[in-house]
Specification:
With about 500 residues, the chain is of the alpha+beta class. Helices cover about 10% and strands about 25% of the residues. It has helices spanning about 25-30, 80-100, 185-190, 410, 480-494; strands at about 1-5, 50-55, 100-105, 125-130, 155, 165, 175, 200-205, 210-215, 225-230, 235-240, 260, 270-275, 275-285, 290, 310-315, 325-335, 345-350, 380-385, 400-405, 425-430, 435, 445-450, 455-465, 475. Strand 13 and strand 14 (about 275-285) form a beta hairpin.
Length: about 500
């Protein structure tokens, strides 16, 4: 979590492509046992800026599936080769017969020593496919695809936690009328999204347009299959649904600007440890799931994809005082993640057992689907990252810093990131420099206060240097990946 003097001169600006200076070896390189490349790196996507992930140096190459445990031989000879060929033939046949699409990439592992077990080889990375017949109808309440991807993006939340359900007839998202709604419907909807149950249901008034009315009660069917169109909602009332208590922070007097955090100040912040060392941050969003950055699991470190190598610690403000860890059973990486641009830099971790919430461990709120963060909005980012861009050591204490949302057009100017910020990214910091996240903060939260609750706006992803002028931090825009988050939580809990 860097804090520099904003009066320092800006870094030199080059008008043409350059071969940048080789970056120093970073904290994560030491943890993973990597060495810096022998030749300078050049990233033509962002001339003249060198895009450096906030954790992984050097920038990992495009992700590829692996079948080996580090340098071990794959599958054990000829029999393994025949098995692979057979699986490929089956996949091709399924693709021709049904039409195959990738829905996620996930990794899990067996680890009897940690108290949980999964019956599979921890060294094998599995690419998960979904097969769907050509007659598939999305959001009709009937599971057509093998993994249910046709029914996975059918619910979203608007302002005030307004519940919207997608209709099979025309694909529109319509609000749900409050009449005939009850607690079992709330629990069923939240469970469908991957939460344990519902937390709070309220009524919203003043909606005059078309809505959906619940017609039947069936806990074994998707909620979208239990509703029908209505000309208008009775009494103009619709459902407001919250699946988990979130965004609550202990009342703490805060000193603005890069200070050590207090216990309970950012209760959704977690630290991800790989083989006993802090590598990335993460954000608790429910009892069972943690969000982090996809680049925390580089392709060139095969064992980083093994779930049993990771431990998650919550309620922590010091790396020297760690509580009992949460074990990871599944690592789910976005299938849209592009390591060359850091687009869709998002990953979801499934925990082995539910987290008990308290004042020190508490989830951040996910934003509504239409949440907009205006330029200049003051937010906070936190983490155990380095306090100096040239350092290879992380901070032993959790630190936080206030940053401001920066409009993407400003962030994409030639003096800044020159078009490298996609629509799935969010800039936050100070164009004059001085306050920023840094290496080791990756995967951590960018939160903004919204109606008294702290809402997750971004996931720490990348930046050029730390706290430099015209080089603010770049975060994964959470509203862009909300459908992916809910769909993966749903698939994991179903």
């Amino acid at each position: 979590m860097a804090k520099y003097d904003p009066n320092e001169p800006p870094p030199p600006y080059y008008s043409g492509p350059i071969y940048p200076q080789l970056p120093p070896i970073g904290h994560e390189d030491l943890v993973y046992g990597l060495t810096p490349p022998s030749t300078p790196r050049y990233l033509p996507q962002y001339p003249p800026v060198v895009v450096v992930p906030r954790v992984t140096q050097p920038l990992p190459s495009k992700r590829k599936r692996r079948c080996c445990r580090d340098n071990a031989q794959c599958y054990g000879g000829t029999g393994g080769v025949l098995l692979v060929l057979g699986l490929l033939a089956l996949a091709i046949w399924l693709g021709v017969r049904y039409g195959t699409r990738i829905t996620s990439i996930f990794y899990k592992a067996e680890d009897n020593s940690s108290g949980y077990s999964n019956t599979h080889d921890e060294s094998v990375s599995i690419q998960k496919h979904d097969t769907c017949p050509n007659t598939t109808i999305h959001c009709d309440g009937i599971k057509d695809c093998v993994f249910g991807s046709d029914e996975s993006i059918c619910i979203k939340f608007g302002a005030g936690n307004s519940l919207h359900v997608r209709t099979a007839a025309d694909g529109r998202f319509l609000p749900v009328c409050y009449s005939n709604w009850n607690k079992p419907y709330s629990d069923q909807t939240c469970a469908q999204l991957g939460f344990a149950s519902s937390y709070e249901t309220k009524v919203l008034s003043g909606y005059r347009s078309k809505g959906l009315t619940m017609t039947t009660q069936d806990s074994n069917q998707y909620i979208q299959g239990l509703a029908s169109d209505n000309s208008s909602c009775p009494n103009q009332q619709t459902v407001s649904l919250q699946c988990v208590e979130c965004g609550r922070q202990e009342s703490i007097s805060r000193i603005i600007g890069g200070q050590v955090s207090k216990l309970g100040e950012w209760p959704w912040q977690v630290t991800l440890h790989f083989k006993g060392s802090h590598v990335c941050g993460g954000v608790l969003i429910s009892q069972n799931f943690v969000l982090t950055a996809a680049h925390c699991f580089p392709e060139n470190v095969n064992s980083s994809l093994v779930a049993s190598k990771w431990k998650v610690y919550g309620g922590v403000v010091s790396l020297t005082e760690l509580p009992q860890p949460y074990h990871v059973t599944r690592i789910i990486l976005s299938e849209n993640y592009d390591s060359s641009t850091n687009d869709h830099d998002i990953a979801l971790l499934k925990l082995a057992s539910p987290v008990d919430f308290n004042d020190k461990v508490h989830p951040a709120c996910l934003p509504s689907s239409d949440q907009q963060w205006r330029d200049g909005t003051e937010c906070f980012t936190s983490g155990f990252g380095t306090t100096d861009a040239q350092s290879s050591s992380v901070s032993q204490s959790l630190r936080d810093v206030n940053v401001k949302i920066i409009d993407s057009e400003v962030c994409n100017t030639g003096v800044s990131y020159n078009g490298g910020v996609t629509k799935n990214m969010l800039c936050a910091g100070h164009m004059g420099g001085g306050k920023d996240s840094c290496q080791g903060d990756s995967g951590g939260p960018l939160v903004c206060e919204n109606n008294g609750f702290w809402t997750l706006a971004g996931i720490t992803s990348w930046g050029s240097g730390c706290a430099e002028r015209h080089r603010p931090g770049v975060y994964t825009r959470v509203t862009s990946v909300l459908p992916w988050i809910y769909s993966k939580m749903m698939q994991e809990m179903s």
